[in-house]
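Design request, tokens follow.
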């Protein structure tokens, strides 16, 4: 079957030329310079997102996970309050139109501090605000309000028990805005104390129909009772008809590059063939070498000669 590949957030070739979407600042700088400076950085990030989409098209990459950092410290303000909002909206609309024209899929992965299952109500409230802002970003990019434009998170915790955490997740999921709920997906974890693909299926998907992003590396670290093929195919059942299953893939740094590395660390490149087990899948490659890891992988495993680093 077929696979399409993405890298996450940073294009190393373009970053070397100053083109990037993750310009940010420390909290002290935000406190000193405020929303005006955040707006200036966001404007530059949005402008460069267009250049990254163009580069991806030129190099045959039809899938891209953009960075949450495109709006620095966005938890501290509303996007519409940015002084440059009109310009930013136009740029985001333009980036989205370009992705649609090229047939690209745009995704995003909010950070691990977003925990709908937290027992701390302040954490949950902040999570809801930030996830809704990711839904707003997708709207600005004119992306469909479906799981094609996935907003990917983890359950985040298992305080009490996995069953209790899942109940909190499902309850708080319903507090999200619809344009966020309609895009939200959940990913299996790399720690045995947290959620396997089977856990997510039984405790989350059957309750709220949130698709599962299968992470190969996390499954290797925390397989539960299912082997890789079984877990991937179980996750495949959760994706709506007409929307390609999205997965994450990385090689273990400990196995291939540094035997002293923690088991959960990602390698710089991909060292084994990514098995699709007969499925059509999108693969977000979580390798430290970013787009270069994808291009090297394709040349080594798929013998594609038409992808060239510019």
């Amino acid at each position: 079957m077929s696979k399409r590949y993405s890298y996450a957030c940073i294009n190393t070739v373009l970053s070397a030329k100053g083109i990037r979407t993750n310009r940010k600042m420390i909290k002290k700088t935000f406190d000193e310079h405020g929303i005006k400076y955040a707006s200036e950085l966001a404007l530059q990030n949005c402008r460069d997102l267009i250049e990254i989409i163009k580069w991806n098209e030129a190099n045959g990459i039809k899938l891209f996970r953009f960075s949450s950092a495109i709006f620095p410290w966005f938890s501290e303000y509303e996007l519409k309050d940015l002084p440059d909002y009109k310009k930013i909206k136009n740029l985001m609309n333009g980036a989205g139109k370009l992705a649609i024209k090229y047939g690209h899929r745009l995704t995003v992965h909010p950070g691990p501090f977003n925990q709908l299952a937290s027992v701390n109500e302040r954490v949950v409230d902040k999570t809801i605000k930030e996830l809704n802002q990711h839904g707003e970003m997708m709207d600005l990019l004119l992306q469909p309000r479906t799981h094609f434009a996935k907003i990917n998170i983890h359950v985040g915790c298992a305080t009490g028990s996995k069953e209790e955490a899942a109940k909190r997740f499902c309850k708080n999921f319903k507090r999200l805005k619809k344009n966020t709920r309609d895009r939200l997906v959940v990913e299996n974890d790399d720690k045995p104390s947290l959620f396997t693909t089977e856990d997510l299926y039984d405790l989350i998907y059957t309750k709220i129909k949130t698709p599962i992003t299968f992470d190969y590396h996390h499954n290797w670290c925390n397989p539960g009772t299912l082997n890789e093929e079984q877990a991937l195919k179980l996750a495949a059942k959760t994706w709506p008809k007409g929307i390609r299953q999205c997965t994450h893939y990385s090689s273990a740094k400990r196995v291939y590059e540094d035997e002293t590395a923690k088991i959960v660390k990602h390698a710089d490149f991909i060292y084994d063939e990514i098995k699709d087990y007969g499925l059509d899948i999108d693969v977000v490659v979580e390798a430290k070498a970013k787009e270069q890891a994808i291009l090297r992988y394709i040349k080594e495993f798929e013998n594609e000669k038409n992808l060239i680093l510019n």
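Comment from the thread starter after seeing the answer: thanks! The domain at 3-302 is CATH 3.20.20.150 (TIM Barrel).
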